[in-house]
Design brief:
alpha+beta; 26% helix; 4 helices; 3-stranded antiparallel sheet; single chain; Mannose-Binding Protein A, Chain A; elongated
């Protein structure tokens, strides 16, 4: 006990007391101030800030995901509302890819699933004779690829060769823009 008394100094006592007061004061503040909520709508735009409503110079509306012109959203993609004139598979793939640019990136033929889902939307009507998909099936050696096409919604399908005789209507799909 004597050894402990020898180590006690005014500074040690005051430091210990300060720690207990700080802990007690913090606990009191936490109990008294807890549960307070701020309505974010009540906070106005910071005065003198010309770009307070912008994100990296763009408005929130310009960052919304949207489809390119002439397309509508279907699941995770955008699909053209109007089918193109009949073409063979190879020509359709090239045609969809040919329109790719900064405003219309990543166009391609739809998968079977994408096209059948699109046909459930009233603004998209299957072209007479069916429409090509991006899905192909191997054929005999030396023969053209067989392409799966949708014949009727919701689950009708057929195979057509990648030749002029197998030409079908088609539509392109693209990833949404923002």
């Amino acid at each position: 006990m004597k050894a402990m008394r020898d180590r006690l100094s005014y500074a040690n006592v005051m430091a210990t007391l300060a720690v207990f007061i700080a802990i007690g004061g913090t606990s009191w503040a936490a109990v008294k101030i807890s549960g307070r909520q701020i309505k974010e709508r009540s906070l106005g735009i910071v005065q003198f800030s010309r770009e307070a409503g912008l994100l990296d110079g763009r408005t929130a509306e310009s960052l919304l995901v949207r489809c390119p012109t002439g397309m509508v959203p279907v699941d995770d993609t955008c699909i053209e509302t109007q089918a193109h004139s009949p073409a063979n598979f190879h020509s359709a793939v090239l045609e969809c890819g040919a329109v790719e640019n900064i405003k219309t990136p990543g166009r391609r033929l739809p998968t079977y699933q994408e096209l059948t889902m699109a046909l459930t939307h009233q603004e998209i009507v299957l072209a007479p004779g069916g429409e090509l998909t991006s899905e192909v099936e191997a054929s005999s050696a030396g023969q053209p690829l067989n392409v799966i096409y949708v014949t009727e919604p919701p689950a009708g399908w057929g195979l057509t060769p990648d030749t002029a005789a197998g030409a079908k209507s088609y539509r392109c799909v693209a990833d949404p823009l923002n």
